[in-house]
Amino acid sequence: MRVSARGGQLRRRLATAVAGAVLVVSIVAPGAAAAPQRGSAPAGKSMGYVNLGDSYSAASGVMPLAAGVAPLCMQSARNYAKIIADRFGYRYTDVSCAGASTKGFFSAQYPGVPRQLDAVRQGAALVTIAVGGNDGDVFAPLVVACTSAAVTRPGAYSPCKDANGNSFVQRIETQTYPHLIAAFRAVRAAAPHATVAALNYPWIMPDRPASCPGFPVARGDMPYVHGIQAALNDAVERAAEQTGVRLVDVASASVGHDACEAAGIRWIEPLAPQGDPTPVHPNELGALQMARITARSLGLARRPSDLRWALNTQR
Fold first, then answer.
1. Where are the beta strands (DSSP E) in 41-159?
2. What is the pTM for the complete model shown?
3. Which of 138, 212, 247, 252 has CB 3.0 to 4.6 Å from 260, enough for a Cys bridge?
């Protein structure tokens, strides 16, 4: 059957968008892997620090990857937790892993990968957590739904919102929020004397229609995606408040640094990333800023030089 030029172009656009979205799914979807290993800062750094969470916590795609960690966890040697540990003298254990949901706190995420709660000990001084985006099948399905809608309904203002309505927000409220409460409570119980802090997610999309090279989402669906992420961040905040966990508000600081901004400004990469970063995940600047924001929020950075250090940190 003969395919028109316009039809061929549409198919190519759809293939490109879906390929990028499938890559995101492959990063957050379960698979077999070897067990991650614990890392530590140089000898003599005695304060215990444990980092938990998903690919945003792991900074998946920021090179180089951490040595001795399960390959499918895609844990970076330059994620925010390692930067904090090295800067402020923590002996750390980092079990963050791409694809993690709160379920991975209570059972093995991959064959041979222990549940994340096993890393939390009563003597821990600090525990940081970034998790929730993979609960309720929200993050990856949202990316797939909205990129696919944009190319299958070219010219439509908000095809993803039209097709999905409030379904993602309902999943966050009925599944993600109670799961976060259970996970945060379990961490608090495992490390009753630790400072436990939960990071929310830096913005992926702006809150209004805008030009967004490298991220084929309809203009009207940009505030829709932003609104769903706002619901997720609100769930993290409410769960933290409910369980006595401190909130690290990365989202507020990330305004103007979403995936639609230019390289060097954005903290999150679009579906067509530049360099090493993983699509729709923090780049190196994003990981550095997450470390800076966390350090400041937790009172670790007390001097002006401590607040500037992340921007000057080299690989």
1. 47-53, 90-94, 126-130
2. 0.85
3. 212
Q: What are the CA-CA distances from residue 257 to residues 61, 145, 206, 254, 268 (Å)?
A: 18, 23, 9, 5, 7
For the chain, list the domains and their CATH numbers. Answer: 5-312 (3.40.50.1110)
Edge-to-edge strand list for the sheet holding 246-248:
90-94, 47-53, 126-130, 195-199, 246-248
Determine whether 60 is an active site residue: no
State yes or no: pLDDT of 35 exceeds 50.
no
Reference 169, options 221, 102, 224, 228; nearest CA is 228
Catalytic residue among 55, 57, 60, 254: 55
Catalytic-labelled residue, pool 57, 281, 297, 305: 281
Distance CA 161, CA 149 (A): 9
Catalytic site residue 55? yes
H or E segment and range at residue 26: helix 5-28
Convert the pLDDT of each residue in 121-136 to its tens digit: 988 999 999 999 999 9
Give DSSP secondary structure letters for 97-110. -TT--THHHHS-SS
The H or E element spanning position 195 is strand 195-199
